[in-house]
Design brief:
The protein is an alpha+beta fold. It folds into two domains: 87 residues, Zinc finger, CHC2-typedomain (DNA Primase, Chain A, Alpha-Beta Complex), CATH 3.90.580.10; 193 residues, 3-Layer(aba) Sandwich (Dna Topoisomerase Vi A Subunit, Chain: A, domain 2). Helix content is 30%, strand content 17%. It has ten helices and 14 strands. The strands form three sheets. The chain has a five-stranded antiparallel β-sheet, with helices on one face. A five-stranded mixed β-sheet has the order 10-12-11-13-14. It has a four-stranded antiparallel β-sheet with strand order 6-7-8-9.
């Protein structure tokens, strides 16, 4: 291996990924909408950049600088990466060709389950979710507690055969950790589907909002199992122009596989992003479906609204008696 002075290597390690992308791959970086100073790559939309660090959520690893990115993501050798960042070969350098998308089915790597579910039951119950609904979801295998250091709640999405295809991690308590399990297919996001054929579907941004709505239905004496409840596994990011936007993959696949659907109820958040998403989806779907925009009457999202209705605070510890 050619010798590189330690001082040069140290200088290279100081180059952050955002600076590198803006200079040498400007078409491969964009700011994440609805955030402040959080960016992602266009090639890999789950590779997020913030505060000088980056993390590739779908692959489960990250780094601290552009050197790490070139080696771990672009698969350059250490010396080639150093040469690129020092500018010695930049005159003849072009980004490597994009890898061809693999056509093989994704293989979901579910985290190991913990021996019980006490932590996630308490967490969801403290967020106002009905205790019986929590127990039914655990019994169906669509919610469980992960083993390991952090004990996250895991929301599972299954395909038509009942096979898990998607899993989202969410931190407990005050933790803001969010992420998808490796191999997650967002076509099959977390959902609770009607037991009998139904001509409508209710759409939510997150699993916790879906469960909150199911709890509200039950509190009204209604059967939540008579409705199709579908989450988008996160915030939907429309384009600036509605005509350039696409229907979220989870919704488009669901509608394709459920041709009886005639009505779509949008229960997206009461913020700027949520309102933009709702307006975009109404525009995209109005020619084929009857679309109702039904955000929470109070609070930012349906979990806020549920907690307001119950007269509780999200951070307040409560017993199972309510």
């Amino acid at each position: 291996m050619p010798y590189v002075e330690p001082e040069i290597i140290e200088q290279v390690r100081q180059i952050d990924l955002l600076t590198y992308l803006r200079k040498f791959e400007p078409d491969n970086v964009e700011e994440v909408k609805g955030t402040k100073n959080v960016y992602r790559t266009v090639d890999h939309d789950s590779l997020k950049i913030s505060n000088g660090k980056w993390f590739w959520w779908s692959q489960g690893f990250g780094g601290y600088n552009a050197l790490d990115y070139l080696i771990k993501v672009r698969n350059y050798s250490f010396m080639d990466a150093v040469e690129i960042l020092t500018g010695k070969e930049l005159a003849n350098w072009t980004p490597p060709p994009k890898k061809e998308e693999k056509t093989e089915p994704k293989v979901l790597r579910l985290p190991e389950k913990y021996q019980d579910s006490k932590r996630i039951i308490q967490y969801l119950f403290n967020r106002g979710i009905d205790y019986q609904i929590i127990q039914e979801c655990i019994a169906d295998g669509v919610i469980f507690e992960s083993n390991g250091r952090y004990h996250n709640v895991v929301f599972v999405g299954k395909d038509e055969t009942g096979t898990p295809k998607y899993a989202a991690y969410r931190g407990l308590g005050s933790s803001t950790f969010k992420g998808d399990a490796y191999g997650s297919d967002k076509q099959y996001s977390f959902r609770l589907l009607a037991k009998e054929p139904c001509q409508s579907v209710h759409l939510f941004e997150a699993a916790i909002d879906l469960l909150s709505y199911a709890t509200l239905l039950k509190a009204q004496g209604k059967d939540y199992k008579a409705e199709n409840l579908l989450s988008l596994s996160g915030v939907y990011q429309p384009k600036k122009e509605s005509k350039d936007s696409k229907i979220p993959i989870a919704l488009s696949v669901f509608l394709e596989k459920n041709p009886l659907i005639k009505t779509i109820h949008l229960h997206l958040d009461n913020d700027k992003t949520g309102r933009l998403c709702a307006n975009t989806l109404k525009e995209l779907l109005r020619n084929k479906y009857e679309v109702f925009d039904e955000p929470p009457k109070k609070g930012k999202d349906y979990n806020d609204y549920l907690c307001i209705q119950l007269g509780i605070y999200k951070s307040k510890e409560r017993s199972y008696e309510r």
